[in-house]
Design brief:
286 residues; alpha/beta; 2 domains; globular; 40% helix
């Protein structure tokens, strides 16, 4: 089934959806719906330049994030994770703590620090024993379960657990989850079933309409899609051989074959070097 809508999990489309001034209302509605902010809702946000570790930025083509603050100065990190590695939960906490500590300049008072909320949209499953596709995590007292430490919270939206079809969607949250998981597979006939009377969902689909992108943007989009496809293939191959995710080890013949595929897909030399362990000179000769 052909669809005119692009993949919202792509870096280009995700940032247009949730990280642009033009579609700021989409992000605000999305955050209010995810966190059920019916009382004291988020009314406005200010975008902040994301902070990514160089190693993460270089290696992971599937890491996409939006950083913003509300009117009270509270920070929201919204990350799209297309592949879930074993260190993801620790990295989420590390990233949130970095954003938290970055608020304080020399001479600033600790009491002025604002909360940090980390929201991960996962193209798969993280907590295999949890039935809910959306989970919220906060710091509680072990004995009384009182919520005294309120500056950190982590939420995980696991798209792999969501199985509803367009005609089964009831709440706007369900529509958001379906949209993130299946927008690029949605036909014109299915669109009214998904959108209903929710105009913000309709606008989100409009932001993914391929006819709204330039030729150059579509070339970049296609390149990112190819990169992600190659990366997932590499991970699948490495797992099949019992290797650690993100590292392709073994015979030199295998490394060369992997490097050839990555080079054909137009991936950066630095990334090929990192994944295969080959030198720039060896890669140039392929």
């Amino acid at each position: 089934m052909l669809s005119r809508f692009l993949n919202p999990k792509n870096d280009l489309t995700f940032k247009r959806l949730f990280g642009s001034e033009k579609n700021k209302d989409i992000l605000i509605h999305f955050l209010n719906d995810i966190f059920a902010r019916t009382t004291n809702p988020i009314e406005e946000v200010e975008f902040i330049k994301p902070i990514l570790d160089p190693e993460i930025k270089e290696l992971r083509v599937s890491v996409v994030d939006v950083l913003c603050k509300d009117l009270e100065g509270n920070t929201f990190i919204v990350e799209m994770q297309c592949d879930i590695d074993t260190a993801f939960i620790k990295r989420a906490q590390y990233y949130a703590s970095r954003v938290y500590t970055s608020q304080r300049g020399k001479g600033d008072d600790y009491k002025d620090l604002k909360s940090v909320t980390f929201l991960a949209i996962l193209d798969g499953t993280l907590f295999k024993d949890k039935k809910e596709y959306l989970s919220h995590h906060v710091i509680l007292d072990k004995n009384s379960y009182e919520h005294d430490l309120k500056d950190f919270s982590f939420s995980f939206l696991e798209l792999g657990k969501f199985k509803k079809k367009p005609k089964e969607l009831i709440t706007v949250l369900e529509k958001w989850v379906y949209f993130l998981k299946n927008a690029s597979k949605t036909s014109n006939e299915e669109l009214p079933l998904i959108v209903g009377s929710d105009l913000i969902i309709e606008k989100a689909f409009e932001a993914l309409d391929e006819y709204g992108y330039t030729k150059e943007e579509m070339m970049y989009y296609d390149q990112l899609e190819r990169n992600e496809s190659v990366y997932k293939t590499l991970l699948s191959d490495s797992e099949a051989k019992g290797l650690e995710k993100g590292k392709i080890e073994g015979k030199i013949e295998g490394k060369i074959e992997v490097a050839k595929k990555m080079k054909e897909a137009g991936m950066a030399i630095d990334m090929i070097k990192k994944v295969t362990g080959l030198s720039a000179e060896e890669i140039d000769k392929l």
